[in-house]
Amino acid sequence: MSLNLTIELSDNDLDHFTEALRRAQSLAAGKSPREITDAAGKLVEGARSRQAPDFIAERLSKLDSLIRMVHDEGWGLADEDKARVLTALTYFADPTDVIPDHIPVVGYLDDAIMIELCVRELKHELEAYEDFCHFRAAEAAKHGVDPATIGRVEWLEEQRQELQQRMRRRRERDHSGRIGMFRIR
């Protein structure tokens, strides 16, 4: 039997989480991107080792995507976008978050809420990254290589080739049976 719970956050609640994020950002001010993502990664590992409830685990998988996005050289996240993601991840680098993680079941509830807020804020970044990962995996499978070896250059080249093939097909379709203005001799 599953149960659907809805949590409605008021403006005051959202302010509370915004303030918690600001505190975490000030504590993480001197940390490198690697330190921030490592700390967030430890949260994911800790929750998995404690077998967090499914509603927590589902959100933690999104946190995992944000972490991978920052370090994926094939994706090549622009500095401004990387800063946005790292800003969101600083909350998870703070070991003294709103609800201590060691409390069974609810210890990760504040983290799940913050992940949900971050995912909403970064939904376009996540969607684009997931699309890129799917495309890269398909390309890797097509060529029989490891997806990690497929980068932006290959992706752009593949896209260019597909677009040019589409252009030629459309041109042939539009000009079939008639002579075009621009003939190559």
Average pLDDT value? 80
Instruction: Say how many strands there are.
Output: 0
Portion of residues within helices: 55-70%
How many individual helices? 7
List low-confidence stretches. none
Radius of gyration: 22 Å
Please state the overall shape, judged from the principal axes of the Cα atoms: elongated
Fraction of residues in β-strands? under 5%
Order of helices and strands: HHHHHHH
> Alpha-carbon distance between the termini?
72 Å
The count of domains is 1
Structural class: mainly alpha
How is this structure best summarized?
By secondary structure, this protein is an all-alpha fold. The protein is 65% helix and 0% strand.
